[in-house]
Amino acid sequence: MGHREPLNPNERTKKDDNGLNVRARVESIYAHGGFASIDPADLRGRLRWWGLYTQRKPGIDGGRTAILEPHELDDEYFMLRVRIDGGQLSLAQLRVLADISKKYARDTADITDRQNIQYHWIRIEDVPTIWRELEAVGLSTTEACGDTPRVVLGSPVAGIAESEIIDPTEAITEICERFIGDPTLSNLPRKFKSSISWLADTPYEANDISFVGVIHPEHGPGFDLWVGGGLSTNPMLAQRLGAWVPLHEVPEVWLGVIQIFRDYGYRRLRSRARLKYLLADWGAAKFREVLEQEYLKRPLVDGPAPELPERPIDHVGIHKQWDGKFYVGAAPVAGRVSGTMLDQIADAAEAHGSDRVRLTPYQKFLICDVESENVDSLARTLRSHGLQVTPSAWRRGTMACTGIEFCKLAIVETKARAAELVAHLEERLADFDADISIHLNGCPNACARTQVADIGLKGQLVRGPDGDMVEGFQIHLGGGLGMAAGQSAGFGRKVRGLKTTAAELPQYVERVARNYLAERSDGE
Ligand code: SF4
């Protein structure tokens, strides 16, 4: 019995048939036969290779999540994730996303913390048409979920930031064109998350592979290579391999790392299959050696550590581009938008002379290329739609995963709780003057990065005032990605017994914030 055999049930499903093949069955069988015609192995497995997840039946409380069989939790509708690599959208693409939301998804749309757009209430009958509408404007759902190379995170200000030295968009584009949908890379042990950014303005430490901009003293600007990050249970931050990679080699190095994961990654236990476990066993030195000797067939160049920001960069507000125009970053609450709102964003951008929008991995969006004389009017227009360009610290720093509204693994509600929390704190602590991050997660899976927030909230049932089990959160305090160079980012401390009911969450966070204000040292 080793790390690779015997295969777990998910591995057997993947071995039986490549997940990418399910598209043909959606087109020829399921879209005509409806939900009941879907093979169970496709329904709860392979459909993910095309961005489809069954969504949770409404009205099932979190206490029953772990008790019910998967088919009892399944609704006959789907969540559909659209990958938006690098978070870059033209207005034409944004309008198609809005249109699909209104026509097929009951006007739902969330901006995820991986720069995707996620719909709900999708019927299998509509999926082939949705694919065609997306693909007509260069968007896709290919490998948006599943044990695949997921969306590649990129800097939301790639190509426009004043401080950027290299725009890595061409590497992201090449990876997507060459390798997304490649059947030789579509049966990985688990998901594979990537980030490529000059500015370290993505959660680079939480990805399986990250390229972070750095200037080599001899070779000039390139990228520092990190591997093996992943949060969820047993969180681990990515480690530097000490290698400098020039822009044109990024796709080849990315390929080598994902091939190591495919070939050596663990497949016996799903809970120990992410790349981080292989890295933990091998160590960074051996990982680099295998990458160089077996996959690249050449040594990598040693490189320096990049300078890293002290706090995550979310790009909210009004900022100058290198070409003298401005980008305007705005904050919906916890990424919740709608098809109607996406249209409003597109209208606002167009009316103010912009043709480009970017999504951020902090559930925000930017409108690019705005002339200085249009900036204030654009900010006012966005505000009239409830989208703040100068949001409170609370709105700016709060993220939430999908939660019990649609997610089958959830134990608690998240998006609506986040909205209540932000409203409470904006009323009670309107002048709060520090950056703060609050991440609400509906279960221990940490999709909204519980462990790296100032206040990380992990959904679970807790004992309420009447002794009954009710929705609540375990609290992790003091995490935070993005630390000064030379330091490593930290995980929030999970303090034993530190829990709150969901109903008391606003008061709890208010108390933490007031204590912080009372006790912080000068300049903190
Ligand atoms: Fe679902 Fe849990 Fe992920 Fe939230 S953290 S989206 S509840 S799996």
TrEMBL record:
Give the PROSITE patterns listed for this entry.
NIR_SIR (PS00365)
The superkingdom of the source organism is: Bacteria
Q: Indicate whether RNA-binding appears among the record's keywords.
A: no
- GO MF assignments: 4 iron, 4 sulfur cluster binding; heme binding; metal ion binding; sulfite reductase (ferredoxin) activity
Record keywords: 4Fe-4S, Heme, Iron, Iron-sulfur, Metal-binding, Oxidoreductase, Thioether bond
Key word Oxidoreductase present in the record? yes
Reaction(s) catalysed by this chain, per the record, are: hydrogen sulfide + 6 oxidized [2Fe-2S]-[ferredoxin] + 3 H2O = sulfite + 6 reduced [2Fe-2S]-[ferredoxin] + 7 H(+)
What's this protein's function?
Answer: Catalyzes the reduction of sulfite to sulfide, a step in the biosynthesis of sulfur-containing amino acids and cofactors.
What name does the UniProt record give this protein?
Answer: assimilatory sulfite reductase (ferredoxin)
What species is this protein from?
Virgisporangium aliadipatigenens
Instruction: Give the classification, highest ranks.
Output: Bacteria, Bacillati, Actinomycetota, Actinomycetes, Micromonosporales
Q: Which gene specifies this protein's sequence?
A: nirA
